[in-house]
Every structure is written in C-alpha cells, then in structure tokens.
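Project standup — Tuesday

K.O.: blocked on the structure for the chain from last sprint. Re-posting the sequence here as requested.
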Amino acid sequence: MINGIIFQRDDNRDYKGVEGDNWYLNNIFPELSEDFFGENIEKSWYDSDYVDVCNDHSFIEKYIELSKRENIKFRMLLCETDRLKPQ
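H.V.: unblocked you, prediction finished:
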C-alpha cells in the first residue's frame, strides 16, 4: 500500500534511502511540528500501524513552498509499506 510522502533534505550523499534528514523544516518552523505534523504524521511512536508520512495535498504543497523559500534542496520519497496507516 502507498502510505504517503516523506520529505528529505537532499544532501548529495550516495545513500538515497529513507534514513536521513527527514522533515527538516520542523526545526526551522516549530509550528509545523506543533500543529499538523504532530497531529497527523508523527504517530509511529505511539502506534506501530503508522508510518510517519504525509498524504495531505495542502500540507505537501506548503512544505514544498517553504522549502523553496528557504532554498533547501529536497527529495520527496514515496513510501509504500505493509503498515495500515495512513492510507
């Protein structure tokens, strides 16, 4: 099942897997993690059926816009797992 997208800072390393500087804007814009991110994405700490991805189009567009405004090179990883949430 395709669960959603993970944003990752593109640091030009050879390794291109899921481990890396993911959700990098949370440190720059704490309100992101306090609001939408904390309530809708960061749930795997509490529920092993979740994977920390986003499938909300408006939040994805906002993350892209803020990344470009901050001149941060990024990658969007499409996450497909066996986990049930989000869907």
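K.O.: great, moving the ticket to review. The chain has a mean pLDDT of 82. Helices lie at 25-28, 30-40, 57-69.
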